[in-house]
Amino acid sequence: MSGKRLVYHTDFKLALQCGRVPATLVVRLPRSTRHRFRTTDYTTVVGAKYSKLLGQVDVLKQIAASRVLLGFCQAFLRMASLLRSLAVNPFRLRRLKNVEQRAAIARRLVNAGRFAPLGTLLACLGMSYRTL
What we know:
Blueprint: H1 10-18, H2 23-28, H3 31-39, H4 43-46, H5 48-65, H6 67-85, H7 99-112, H8 118-124
Helix pairs in contact: 1-3, 6-7
């Protein structure tokens, strides 16, 4: 070998660092190159905003690995989606006059209670038992 390192595109390096490169391609890279790509700080290349996003990817991987946490997040997102689709502010549910909407929200909360404690879901949405 001539002693020169191969040059890789920055997008490929970032994709490798995020874990988005297929394993078949990763195996073909030299071990030292993989190590260098994973340990290099890319904040100067893409900025602090991307670095923050990359940190959030690690948190999302931990959530995906935990069944309990994943279930809680699914329940919370289902509730938030329902409230958004009904165009309902969770802090104004007491003033909601439409009985069908209130019933739909209550049913969805009870169903979501399988994944997370109902009180915790209500607290995350800024609601209380009295609101239902």
